[in-house]
Design goal:
Strands 3-4-5-7-6 form a five-stranded mixed beta sheet, sandwiched between helices. It contains 26 helices and seven strands. Helix content is 54%, strand content 6%. Among the domains are: 135 residues, Endopeptidase. Chain P, domain 1 (Glutathione S-transferase Yfyf (Class Pi), Chain A, domain 2); 65 residues, no CATH class; 179 residues, Neurolysin, domain 3, CATH 1.10.1370.40. The chain is mainly α. The chain starts with 25 loop residues before the first helix and ends with a helix.
Length: 681
Amino acid sequence: MSEHSNPFLEPSPLPYRLPLFALIRPEHYREAIETGMREQRLAVERVATDAAAPTFENTIVALERSGALLRRVLPVFENASAADSDATIDAVEMELAPLLAAHRDAILLDPRLYARVQTLHAARTELGLDPESEYVLERHHRIATLAGAALGAAERAELTALNTRISELTTEFQQHLLADANELALHLTDADDLAGLDAGRRSAAREAARARGLDGWLITLVLPTAQPALAALEHDAVRDRLFGASRARGCRGGPYDTRATLLELVRVRAERARLLGFDDHAAAVTVDQTAGTPEAVAELLGRLIPPATANAHREAGALAEQATASGGRALEASDWALLSEAVRRERHDVDLEKLRPYLEFERVLASGVFRAATLLYGLRFVERPDLVGYHPETRVFEVFEEDGASVGLYLLDLYARDSKRGGAWMSELVAQSTLDGTLPVVVNNLNVARPAAGEPTLLTLDETETLFHEFGHALHGLLSDVVHPSVAGTNVHRDFVELPSQVNELWVLRPEVLGEYAVHHETGERIPQQFVDRLLASRTSGEGFATTEYLAAAVLDQAWHRLSAADAAAVTDVAEFEHRALAAAGLDDLLVPPRYSSTYFTHVFAGGYDAGYYSYIWSEVPGADIMARFEADGGATRENGERFRAEILAPGGSRDPLESIRRFLGREPSIEPLLRRRGLA
């Protein structure tokens, strides 16, 4: 292929159709996406005008096959906008977001297509379809119906305009937040201000400053309210500055303020829900999730809030005592993490900072994350330095079955940088599908601070858990085994998608995995068993805070998205609304702010979790039950892994997720394991 031709216009010749990243230039995205939209519209028009009676093959399969070029380019572009953005990519995203929204609506809301799908759906029991095909037909019909395909022409036009505006606003929110977070990074020039940070964190801060051409040290912001360095920084004033910067994102005026954007987004989503016949956006979202209704979500959150906040209040009392005993000031929110670690050390003799030398990244990856996948599923990982990723820091691994059969490619992009949004996530660049003849290519993105050249990357326990968590999503994509691309891998209900990733966190502290990767990077000493025992005994320490901050964010998400169109139009003050929503739920605790406040709540205002942030705790109910089953049945064994693969991972979105859960457990899930794991029993 010529270096001047567009590398997206034909399937990639690389193994597993890995995109030709070495040839991709920003202008290729626009051309390929525009061409892809035209090609798909032509293919869909052929389906809509087919004179033959609708069949599964000439309607559903034809729709599944359409959009092949878009499936090649869109995941790559979306990954670039999140993981390695620049002004050019931002501009292309702003330009194309409304066009893509209109394109999707033109297909989804086409009354001719909908009539064909309706005809098939009405006769579905007579078509002799296999279970996956029958479920795919059901999904096509349900998604189109809930999207508004049955509306009249005027209403469909109004709906398209609303969807277009939503896409513009979510793009704007993400871009503004990334820019503001970069500006608010804490720049320190006095070495004394770093008191408490170990050599690894200091090295990472020095490297972050150097990357921006600054003297001194730079502590960049991660996505949640609680910043990791708060657990170590000794000086009150420095912690206050870092905490204040975290809380200021999106709400300090100027060009990157997100408040007007999110208020309009809430109003447009509420208006869209009204047009679709729902009371609010949350109702429109949950009707097609396992939860079913916002009331079911509220019932679960309401059940968890009292024990979680009671635990948090007890923890606050212990921290206040610790502050007094150490001669410090009265407890502030910015002190919580530091004092919590002090209490953990005093009560459990566990210092999480002393764990970091045992969590050297390369060993965690190879002997921890990959080894667990080998024990459970027989997978083997071989790094492919000959294959080029989308960024110089991206590493590519080829994945094989135990018998040598190809599985797919796993890409890992570990380090934070200014061009990458905060948080951690998984993406599918190529989805598995026997219809398309594709094997999966998946990516994990994290935001670990890069140490100086030649120094090891030492993870925190939280970063280690995040790596295992995101790899659980990667396994969901890698081990997908379906025909149709629309139900491959993580294309599942939003309040089910977190289950595989949560379950994969189990292996962080399981002895058959921990004993292999938790090795001191200098001495080669395995982590002492007595330390592990104390760590396990302290696992519910701090869960009051962790659960409460999460529930506060979930409540905020629901509060914004349970507003009717009229009520949403009346909200003008973000901070006031946030305070009233938290107070009504009994979560207005200044010492335990939400994990994400509204102005930097990317999950729900730019990340596809709108009215769905509850999904983490919802999926953790069956997830914790499944983890308890793993532990009771011997841990990371092939027998356990193959059952989990067959019933949870391989089906992707090709059947009802509740059926998958029941098949694995042999019964309905219980909430009791979740309550025990979080110290809420």
